[in-house]
Design brief:
The protein has 14 helices and 26 strands. The chain has helices spanning about 20-30, 50-60, 85-90, 95-105, 125-135, 165-175, 190-200, 235-245, 260-270, 305-315, 335-340, 370-380, 395, 400-410; strands at about 1-5, 10-15, 35, 40-45, 65, 70-75, 85, 110, 135-140, 145-150, 155-160, 180-185, 205, 215, 220-225, 225-230, 250-255, 275, 280-285, 295, 320-325, 345-350, 350-355, 365, 385-390, 410-415. With about 425 residues, the protein is an alpha/beta fold. It has two domains: about 1-20 and about 230-415, UDP-n-acetylglucosamine1-carboxyvinyl-transferase, Chain (Alpha-beta prism), CATH 3.65.10.10; about 20-230, Enolpyruvate transferase domain (UDP-n-acetylglucosamine1-carboxyvinyl-transferase, Chain, Alpha-beta prism), CATH 3.65.10.10. Bound molecules: ligand EPZ.
């Protein structure tokens, strides 16, 4: 195991480049196995454990996969296995995209139920609703999702809840269904649009991704293509918030500023300077920030995946702030760790009531999930004294080279081996 040791209180200065989007990459890689001809070369792949995990799963299907420097080449023409049942499948959430991919191409899929961050119940009923609407029979027995169809036929599907996973998964299957599918009450996140653009590069016919209605006209087959993953909106938001928390001036580069609008707007409301350039944002903060209220919502609302870093920032911002976590029912567990540092936060169900304090003091913290780990690193960077964040394997799932990037900005942070977790 490893932990990060941070000597806090230093301002951040400099420029960092954001990596490819985790939640786009872990959907695009499974989608690539739908190609029955040609090879896909996918660029701007982030160097993170979740990507390595999904790559291992794809290889377990006897698919040829070659890793390069932030690039993956996939030749799925020889796949002969519709069973995804390795430990990796049960470890991560995005393995469920193999259901839509294999069902779409082979009309059959046997995929173990997914794992993922412990932030709530995380059902897949909407995925199943979509697959069944397309004509599949779906059963869950012994922890395995089995989906089969004689034929997949286009349908009109109105999701009961806005779900990134269900929107993407059903979109995948529908690309090779006969006829037209309309999806409504869909997720509009940048990574949903990125997956649709990738599928269209493979020869799919998807219109309206990023809007309230996605229309998919089924095609006969999909072919490998060249593609580059969009920058990670959540990684970028994390570094923006870290700069606001520590004070200083940082250029967050290689991003799409439009994707950051809800985060930029909230930081500006709190007194942070945010200057937009074509593919970067300059963040300037004197740490003297005003509290604010946050309600996490599907895109373009405030992203739930930066709620924990933002709650950490609000814990040292002036006055009372209220954070309402509308997406996940259990995403405040990390608050108990923040309290060890002197934060004043009261959690009532899906709401956190935060009274800003003048400073946090270093402590030994345990990362409970991916984004909580990032929040604790931010807390350590801005706290007085030394902080240790253990169980950082959670963080390595979604943040490439996080301590290296913070070191480039002047942070005193180092990774060391430990027995603790
Ligand atoms: C994706 O999870 C992301 N993960 C999550 O990011 C992110 O928090 C979430 O979208 C929301 O943006 C990946 O993309 C791999 P959902 P997903 O389906 O698809 C309910 C991170 O930190 N729901 O949009 O699992 C669900 O309970 C991770 O990178 C159903 O009720 O999320 C939740 O309340 C954490 N039935 C809401 O919808 C379903 O069938 C949104 O979930 C599916 C979802």
């Amino acid at each position: 195991m490893e932990k990060l040791v941070i000597n806090g209180g230093r301002k951040l200065f400099g420029k960092i480049d954001i990596s490819g989007a985790k939640n786009a990459a872990v959907a695009i890689l499974p989608a690539a196995v739908m190609a029955s001809q040609g090879v896909s070369i996918i660029d701007n792949i982030p160097d993170i454990e979740d990507v390595q995990c999904i790559e291992r799963i794809i290889e377990s299907l006897n698919c040829k996969l070659i890793r390069g420097n932030n690039t993956v080449t996939i030749d799925s023409t020889t796949i002969n296995n519709v069973f995804a049942n390795t430990d990796d499948v049960r470890r991560m959430r995005a393995s469920y995209y193999l259901i839509g991919a294999l069902l779409g191409r082979f009309k059959e899929a046997h995929v173990d139920l997914p794992g993922g961050c412990a932030i709530g119940v995380r059902p897949i009923d909407q995925h199943i609703k979509g697959f069944e609407a397309l004509g599949a029979t779906v059963n869950i027995e012994h922890g395995v999702v089995t989906a089969k169809a004689e034929r997949l036929v286009g349908a009109n599907i109105f999701f009961d809840v806005v779900s990134v996973g269900a929107t993407i998964n059903v979109m995948l299957a529908a690309t090779l269904a006969e006829g037209t599918t309309t999806l409504e009450n869909v997720a509009k996140e940048p990574h949903v649009v990125d997956v649709a653009n990738f599928m269209n590069s493979m020869g799919a016919n998807i219109k309206g991704a990023g809007t309230d209605v996605i229309r998919i006209t089924g095609v006969k087959e999909l072919k490998g293509c060249n593609y580059s993953v969009i920058p990670d909106q959540i990684e970028a938001g994390t570094y923006m918030i870290a700069t606001a928390a520590c004070g200083g001036e940082v250029v967050v580069g290689n991003i799409i500023p439009k994707h950051m609008e809800s985060i930029s707007a909230k930081l500006i409301e709190m007194g942070v300077e945010v200057i937009e350039n074509e593919d970067s944002l300059l963040i300037r903060s004197d740490r003297n920030l005003k509290g604010a209220n946050i309600k996490t919502l599907p895109y373009p609302g405030f992203p739930t995946d930066v709620q924990q870093p933002m709650t950490t920032l609000l814990s040292v911002s002036r006055g009372r702030s209220i954070v309402n976590e509308s997406v996940w029912e259990s995403r405040f567990k990390f608050v108990d760790e923040l309290k060890k540092m002197g934060a004043s936060v009261k959690v009532e169900g899906r709401t956190a009531i935060i009274d800003g304090v003048s400073k946090l003091t270093g402590a030994v913290l345990k990362a409970t999930d991916l984004r909580a780990g990032a929040a604790m690193i931010i807390a350590g960077l801005m706290a007085e004294g030394t902080t240790e964040v253990t169980c950082i394997d959670h963080v390595d799932r979604g943040y490439p080279h996080i301590e290296e990037k913070f070191k480039m900005l002047g942070a005193d942070i180092r990774r060391i081996k430990t027995e603790d977790c």
